[in-house]
Write the structure tokens for this entry.
Amino acid sequence: MPSKRRIRWAAIPVIAAAAVALAGCTPTELHGYLPGFEESGQPATDQTEGIASLWVGSWVVLLLVGVITWGLMLWAMVVYRRRKGQTGLPVQMRYNMPIEIFFTAVPLILVMGMFAFTVREQTEIERPWADDEVEVEVSAIAKQWAWDFQYDGATADGEPVYTMGTQAEAAANGDVDQDALPTLVLPVDKKVTIDLQSRDVVHSFWIIDFLYKKDMYIGHDNSWSFIPTREGHYDGRCAELCGEYHSRMLFNVEVVSESEYEQYLADLEAQGNVGDVNDAYDRLQNLTGTDGVASETEEGH
Ligand SMILES: [Cu+2]
């Protein structure tokens, strides 16, 4: 039997090798190949580290279970293989109580554990800022097949400013014309709440590198509270099949410094984009039974 000291000595090269291997990993590899992790090490939001560790942790546990299970299967196949001269069925075994209890209890514990970690993470993500904590409140309003963004309390009088977007079009070279996409501008390191609304059908608000998406309904306003923590450009899109041009329902997100953000709002105000997003592109206003004012009452703005 190896002494404790020998085990300790053996552990040193193992730990050193693991450290060297991990040190050589890029942030993308360390976060389980999820998008949005850069060399700078600065996460995109205050939530992405937690989401990534839930993802990586789940994979580690699942792979461990997989390796043990595959190993046992291989072992059984080799050790209990049919040998020369054997005929008929092998001895049939059944009702091994300890093994059956083991096979029931272990997956149950694993599933409950994963559920608990998921609930913990989700509760953290879903927790809205308290009313007096919110520093930036933006409404993202989805419509077939683009986005409007309304920045509350932006002018000196407390009026909102807004942009109303159109769906993606092809540029001259055939790619998506990035400059023409609707753009959501957010200040870095501020407590942001995005109110998620829809004008028509169910859409889903997804900023890829922020590792979270959330549906937008009529008659039920969702919101999402977080802190963008890294300046930069991010791709956003609708993540719910919402009609013919769903694939064109793209948007850009620019996370900028506070002064750039203020300047952006001032520019929108100067362009006259002041007030609430209007119903100009509201498809539902034409439906029977909606009285032409459906969006007013249903969207609540
Ligand atoms: Cu959509």
Summary: Residues 142, 203, 238, 240, 242, 246, 249 surround copper (II) ion (CB under 6 Å). The first strand starts at residue 136 and ends at 143. Residues 81 and 87 are 12 Å apart (CA to CA). Residues 48-79 form the longest helix (32 residues).
